[in-house]
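User: I'm preparing a small set of examples for a lab meeting where we compare how different chains pack in three dimensions. I only have the primary sequence for this one, and I'd like the structure in token form so I can line it up with the others. Please keep the answer compact; I'll paste it straight into my notes.
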Amino acid sequence: MLIWRDAMAIGHPEIDHARKHVIGRINDFERALGTHGPYTALGLFLTGLYEETSTAFGREEKIQRECSFPFIEPHHREHAELLEKIELLKEQYDELDARGDCTPLLRLLAGLAKEWITAHIVQSDLKLRPYWQNHNGIHPRAR
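Assistant: Understood. Below is the structure token output for the 143-residue chain.
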């Protein structure tokens, strides 16, 4: 089970809420996996994920532009890659039979979750924190 930590926060309510929501979805998936099995858990996790994530990424990029975040382009590419991986997972899931082997999809999802949390949320997204704080007149020591 993943746990949100304040050290993961950007300080922007919408961005932090969306990031907490991703962690919540992953935790819900883990619970559904034990309760309903892999096929149903994958379906629950993937339903609406692309649309929801695309919207959250769009809001995040808007805020990045407002803060003159210098890493907008590489960050946008990370978002595009994550969305592409979500889309691919959903397509593969849609082709899977309920009695089919979910193991390859579970491995892909585990890799995506790890990348999303460790590489994107914990590393890339946190680069925004000082720009957001500076944009809002928050002194770095007041963190």
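A couple of notes for your slides: Helices lie at 13-36, 38-46, 49-66, 72-95, 103-124, 129-135. The two ends are 27 Å apart (CA to CA).

User: Perfect, thanks.
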